[in-house]
Write a structure and sequence with these properties.
Blueprint lengths: L12 E4 L7 E4 L6 E5 L4 E5 L14 E8 L5 E4 L27 E7 L2 E7 L6 E7 L14 E9 L6 E10 L21 E8 L2 E8 L11 E6 L4 E4 L9 H13 L18 E10 L4 E11 L3 E2 L12 E2 L2 H5 L3 H10 L1 H16 L5 H11 L7 E3 L5 E3 L2 E2 L4 E2 L13 H5 L1 H14 L26 H18 L2 H16 L18 E3 L5 E3 L3 H20 L3 H22 L44 E2 L4 H9 L7 H15 E2 L19 E2 L2 E2 L18 H13 L3 H14 L24 H8 L2 E3 L4 E3 L8 E8 L2 E10 L2 E19 L5 E6 L6 E5 L2 E11 L3 E6 L5
Parallel strand pairs: 31-34
Antiparallel strand pairs: 1-7, 2-3, 3-4, 5-6, 5-11, 7-8, 8-9, 9-10, 10-17, 11-16, 12-13, 13-14, 14-17, 15-16, 18-19, 20-21, 22-23, 24-25, 26-29, 27-28, 30-31, 32-33, 33-34, 34-37, 34-38, 35-36, 35-38, 36-37
């Protein structure tokens, strides 16, 4: 089915003209690095060397088209939209971009992760040309989603009355031997040499395998690349002419532009020292009148070694690591072969997910926010190591990871991996509790890799440590794996009860954190506050439920007692009639502690009446953060429900700005001028400290999405959608890349809080232990449809209300799930059940339908419920 005819395609964002300027759509697998498809059709940001490489290009790497309509002269073009200004460099646009070769007049880029499509326009072409690009992205299938490869498929349509002969050609520089930090202006560099390009035809593929003979198999600079096609009729050149000035590219272009054919040679002789070669692979096609012909290409890479170059700790600095994919495939050609052999399933399931997701009725800015930030999983923010474990930086600097590794407080916000790839998320919990939690419960909130025994030596993070407890509860609810829960439980108890220790945050066990609380703002809060407090309450509630499941009734009782005390005291201490404040309590002597950042000033300085970097009576956008998490995982109210709603409404009223033109900030700027955004904090009642916490005046998308979702959970749907829309409007292609939400680095993990928007609007909750799934749509209730992910399966949920008739269907598209109960907005009484079992009637009570016997659903199965709608 053509993409434009597929469900949901029309709901994907489209960019053209100046909005193509920053577009960079990442292509690659989980933990493999990426190559980005630029908005013009250019390949950019070659981040395949196990590290970030923003702005990097491979010289002389581009697609080109040669086409000749019967009876007309040939046309040759680089298959990219014309370059966008500025052109004010000393030599104009870079020569290595072949900037002076003719390109196409206009392009329209339509993208929604994991698919992109570019439609080109040029009056001189006898063909209509488009490109579809994707990497396999199959939720809950880590292998299918872990290929270091991109599928790039060209479509050539002939609107004329005579046949057109054409060649689509990819030219690619052999970069094997580089480490991703080099800037190349041509084919010469000291790390290059003895690079080999070899034409291969096997396993239904034809193409060029690239390698280097200069480095041993264990060297981080050892690598292979491949460009291949399943098309039979190909033309190729293993290496361009080795010549001075620009004779190499001149020779290639003159040859290609004359007849679209290449010389099919020469032999694969290694390049001289300090040099590499460019190879070209062309697909020959004939497109009849009215026909559309496709030319698919596979681009794959294999860089099997890297080292820890981001930590200073001697135990791990310089230690060798291997990506998971290197244990699965021997080289880049093997990756390309796997993708080709399984392309129908891999591409088919990727598009099945895409169709299910974008055919839903959620507002377009929400679909855009959720899908765009799912791409973070595939960027160099994330690693997957040889043992299959998943790890993540906070984000990416241009040439290195940012703030390593598995930072518990930043990753508190992330929900995307947890729902799309729950097995990977469980691997992070094993690192948290089986490795990073010390015997006394003090948890390292960053991970040192490889896991050699030494732990990161810094104070614990109060929000991060309590958040990991809530995450274990989430992972157990999604998996139903009691063995996993039992494995985590000793570490969970130690981490939670560390709060009660003399070094902890709640030595008197009254449920309120009073001590020094290091947190995600890279400073310490002193005194009770609900940002840390709701995480603590959420951890107590989660631990209570987990203890009961494991039969540890004594622990459950203790946790409930502390929870009830903390719930009352936080509300009594901090409620100001509108929202919750911080009660600043200066620590005693000897408590002075430096900040996290290099050279960061101390929170306690001579002459200060109170510690710096607090928020006091401010309205903090994160002050209900743990309550948001509790909503996501179904733990209910941590503080009185009416006050939670008032507080989240106050956050929106005071912190959301429709226009930031008059906003004062000397901090980092992520929203500017007349853009809209949500500030981290405001002081509507006065009392702003002289030195509030250092990011107070900034705008972070990760916080915007959690606040937006929480607004929706509390019934403030329009307000929530408005906040999410503001974040995505700022990433419009002209000003910012729509697939790169940054904070302290590119592709920042906090932005994956966006998945909670889908959960909030659909009301989706899933409990594998209870075999229960719930939906309570908060928009378009009369005709609602959305994607769902539930632990071991994903698919579509649909709801219709027509007068006095309520119908709902749960359709599984991948995996399997067993359901015993459905919680839906259906009235009490008899309901009709249709599904893969002997169902006919059931009874709804208090919005829950309990099936007469469990329904085991597999891919293709649907469970349907019909009854009366719940009165609204």
């Amino acid at each position: 089915m053509p993409p434009t005819c597929r469900p949901g395609f029309a709901r994907m964002r489209t960019f053209e003209g100046d909005a193509l300027r920053t577009v960079a759509f990442p292509l690659g697998g989980i933990g493999t690095g990426t190559v980005s498809l630029g908005g013009r059709g250019n390949l950019r940001d070659w981040e395949i060397f196990n590290r970030p490489a923003k702005g990097s290009i491979l010289p002389y790497t581009f697609f080109a088209l040669w086409a000749r309509a019967q009876g007309a002269p040939p046309v040759a073009r680089v298959l990219e939209r014309q370059l966008l200004p500025p052109f004010d460099g000393p030599s104009g646009p870079p020569t290595a971009w072949v900037s002076g070769l003719p390109r196409l007049r206009e392009a329209r880029f339509t993208g929604a992760y994991p698919e992109a499509r570019i439609e080109f326009e040029d009056p001189d072409l006898p063909l209509q040309v488009s490109l579809e690009a994707l990497n396999p992205f199959v939720p809950m299938d880590e292998e299918a989603s872990g290929l270091p490869a991109a599928w790039l498929e060209w479509s050539l349509s002939n609107p004329g009355r005579v046949p057109v002969v054409a060649t689509v050609c990819l030219s690619l520089l052999n970069p094997c031997g580089l480490d991703g930090t080099e800037t190349l202006g041509g084919r010469h560099h000291g790390s290059l040499g003895r690079n080999r390009n070899e034409f291969v035809r096997e396993s239904g593929l034809a193409g060029i395998r690239m390698s280097t003979e200069r480095y041993g198999a264990d060297d981080p600079r050892s690598a292979t690349l491949a460009m291949a096609t399943p098309c039979e009729e190909v033309t190729w050149r293993a290496r361009w002419e080795r010549a001075g000035w620009w004779d190499d590219v001149q020779s290639f272009w003159d040859d290609f532009a004359s007849d679209g054919c290449l010389p099919d040679g020469p032999d694969p002789e290694p390049s001289p020292e300090g040099q590499t070669d460019v190879a070209s692979l062309g697909v020959r096609l004939t497109v009849g009148p009215g026909e559309t012909v496709r030319a698919p290409f596979i681009l794959s890479w294999h860089v099997p070694n890297f080292v820890n170059d981001w930590n200073r700790e001697e135990a791990v600095r310089g230690k060798r690591l291997r990506p998971w994919y290197a244990m699965r495939w021997s080289d880049a050609w093997a990756v390309a072969t796997h993708l080709s052999d399984h392309r129908d399933a891999l591409i088919g399931q990727t598009r099945l997910f895409s169709d299910a997701f974008f055919a839903g009725t959620l507002p377009e800015p929400v679909l855009d926010a959720v899908s765009a930030n799912a791409s973070i999983i595939r960027t160099t923010t994330c690693l997957r190591l040889e043992d299959g474990s998943f790890h993540g930086f906070e984000g990416c600097h241009d040439h290195s990871g940012c703030c390593p590794m598995n930072c518990t407080h930043v990753w508190n916000y992330e929900q995307t991996v947890a729902y799309l790839y729950p097995a990977l998320e469980r691997s992070v919990r094993r690192t948290d509790f089986a490795h990073n939690t010390r015997a006394d419960g003090y948890q390292a909130f960053r991970t040192l890799l490889p896991l050699v025994g030494e732990l990161w030596a810094f104070k614990p993070a109060a929000d991060g440590q309590m958040g990991t407890v809530m995450k274990v509860y989430r992972e157990w609810q999604q998996s139903g794996d009691l063995e996993f829960l039992g494995e985590m439980w000793p570490g969970v108890r130690r981490a939670l009860e560390y709060a009660w220790s003399p070094k902890g945050w709640d030595g008197d066990r009254d449920g309120v954190m009073e001590g020094e609380q290091h947190n995600t703002y890279d400073i310490e809060f002193y005194g009770p506050n609900t940002m840390m407090g709701t995480f603590y309450l959420g951890a107590l509630r989660a631990a209570e439920e987990m203890a009961l499941a494991l039969g540890d009734v004594g622990a459950a009782t203790s946790y409930r007692t502390v929870f009830e005390s903390g719930r009352r005291k936080l509300d009594d201490l901090l409620w100001n009639g509108e929202y919750y404040e911080q009660q600043v309590i200066a620590p005693g002597p000897g408590s002075e502690t430096p900040g996290v950042g290099a050279g960061a000033p101390a929170s306690l300085q001579a002459g200060d009446a109170e510690p710096r970097y607090q928020y006091g009576p401010g309205c903090l956008s994160d002050h209900l953060l743990g309550q948001w998490f509790a909503r996501v995982v179904g733990l209910g109210d941590l503080l009185p429900g009416d006050r939670v709603r008032s507080a989240i409404e106050a956050i929106y009223r005071h912190n959301f700005r429709a226009d930031l033109s008059a906003h004062h900030s000397v901090q980092r700027v992520y929203a500017i001028n007349d853009e809209a955004g949500l500030l981290l904090c405001s002081w509507p009642r006065g009392g702003r400290p002289a030195y509030p916490f250092p990011y107070a005046d900034e705008v972070w998308t990760g916080i915007e999405y959690q606040v937006a979702a929480h607004l929706i959970y509390e019934g403030l749907v329009e307000e929530g959608i408005r906040v999410a829309t503001a974040a995505r409007d700022r990433h419009d292609g002209a000003k910012r890349n729509p697939w790169n939400e940054f904070e302290c680095g590119h592709h920042y993990a906090r932005a994956m809080s966006s998945w909670s928007l889908l959960l909030a609007l659909s009301g989706c909750e899933y409990s594998a232990p209870a075999r229960r799934i719930a939906f309570s749509p908060r928009t378009r209730q009369h005709a609602f449809q959305c994607f769902f992910a539930a632990g071991t399966a994903w698919g579509e949920f649909c709801q219709r209300i027509d007068g006095g008739r309520y119908t709902a269907s749960l359709r599984v598209l991948w995996g399997d799930i067993t359901v015993e109960a459905l919680s839906l907005p259906v009235a009490d009484g008899d309901v009709t059940i249709v599904g893969p079992g002997p169902y006919a009637r059931a009874t709804a009570s208090m919005g829950t339908v309990r099936l007469p016997q469990p329904a085991a659903l597999t891919a293709g199965d649907a469970l349907e419920v019909e009854g009366r709608p719940l009165a609204v």
